[in-house]
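C-alpha cells for Small RNA 2'-O-methyltransferase. Go.
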Amino acid sequence: MLLTISTTREPATDLGYLLHKHPDRVQEFPRAFGVAHVFYPEATDQRCTAALLLDVDPVRLARTRGKTTPDFSLGQYVNDRPYAASSLLSTAMAEVFRTARSGRCAARPELAETAIPLEIVLPALPCRGGPTLARRLFEPMGWDVAADPIPLDPAFPEWGDSRYVTLTLKGELRLADALNHLYVLLPVLDDAKHYWIAEDEVDKLIRAGEGWLAAHPDLTLITRRFLNRRTALTRAAFARLAEVGDDEEETLEPPAEEEVRIPLNTLRRDAVVAALAELQARTVIDLGCGSGQLITALLDRGVPKITGVDVSAHTLMVAARKLKLDRMGSRTRERVDLFQGSVTYTDARFAGYDAAVLMEVVEHLDPPRLPAMERVVFGTAKPTYVLVTTPNAEYNPRYENLTGLRHPDHRFEWTRAEFRDWANAVAGRYGYQVEFRPVGDDDPEVGSPTQMAVFAKEASV
C-alpha cells in the first residue's frame, strides 16, 4: 500500500518537521501485520513529497486476524490487503504520524496551525460507492478530488471498471486535518476493517472527526461504516457528536417501536432561537459559531444582522460553504458577517450587538481563561443580552458508552449548581441579571442534558 503527501509551500522540506520524519532518512516501523516504511522521493525547497509504504505480510495478517476477518481457507491469504489502501493503512498512518495528527510541532508551531498546499495520492483505494462517493466524502472539507476508476483488466476494457480508484486530493488545509480525514475515510470507503470493533472506536472517531465530522453532509454514512454498523456504538457516536453543537441533523433510525427523538443539538439551537425572539434581538453575534447552524436558523427567522465568530479559519470556511455565502442574494448577504476571533481577547468588533450567544463554547476554555472571556464579553463588548449554553455534567450517566467528558476537547463540564454559581457571580460583577432554563428532557433526578443561562443588563430589565 502506498500513500504520498506533497507540498509546495516553501521551504517545502518543512514538511519533515510537521510529520516528525527527517527527509534524509528512510525509517521503518514494524507493525503486527507487516512493516511501514517512511521515505521522501523528493525533497527540495520548492516541492517535498513524503511516502508511506506499508508492506503487509498476508501470513502474519492471517495469524493475527480479528473476529470480523473472513475465515475461509484461501480468503485468509489471497486478497487485496497487501496492495489496496484500507484500515491497515489507516491504522499504520495513525501510529507512524501520531504527533502530526495531533497538530503538535515544537519546531514549527505556527506552521502546524497553518493551511498549506497539499497533494495526497493513493494509487489503489477500494471504494464501495465508486468515484462519486469519494468526491462526496472529501469535497465538503475543501478538497479538489480526482477519483479515477481502475479497470479490471486494461487488456479487456469490455470487462469494465473494478471497485478500486486512484485517488488524488488537492487543497490548502492543515496537515493534521488532512491526516485525520484520511484516518476516518479510508476504512469508510473500503467499508471494512481488519480488526474487531470495540467501544473505544467511538472515541477514535470523535477525536479524529473534531472540527469537521459533525458538520459533514454524509455524517450518517461515515459513522455507520466506520463503526461497522454496530447499532449501539453508532447511536452512542451520534449522541456524542450532537453534543459538539455542530450541524448533525440526521440521527440513527430507531427501531419501529421506538419514538423518534429530536437530536439535542437541534433542541439547543431551537431554544436559543426562541429566547432571542422573546428578547426581540435584532442584531446577534454568535461567538464560537462553528459551521453556522445558528446563523442559518436566525436568517430563516428574519433577524436583520447576524455575525459569526470562530477561532478556526477552517471552521469559518466550512460555515461559509454551508451558508452558500457566494450564492446569496445581495440583500441577504448584507445581513451576514463572518470573521476570525477569540472570546478571550478584546476585539472592538464584538461590540454593538443586542445579543451575544456562546452556545457550547465555555466548556472548551481552560478554566484559567474564563475570567478573560468574562471581561471580553460582559465587560467590554457589553451586549444587552448574553445567552450561554453548556452541558450538564449530572446528565452524563444517561449516555450509554460515555466515559469521561462528552467531547475530547472539553476542559470541564459543570453540574447545575456549579453553572449557577458561575453565572450568578458573573452577573453580579458586570451588572447583569440572569435566569436559567433547561434544554432537552428535564430528568427529575439529574436535570436536562443542556443548561442555558440568559443574562440581561440590569438597565434593560
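Residues 66-73, 245-260 have pLDDT under 50 and may be disordered.
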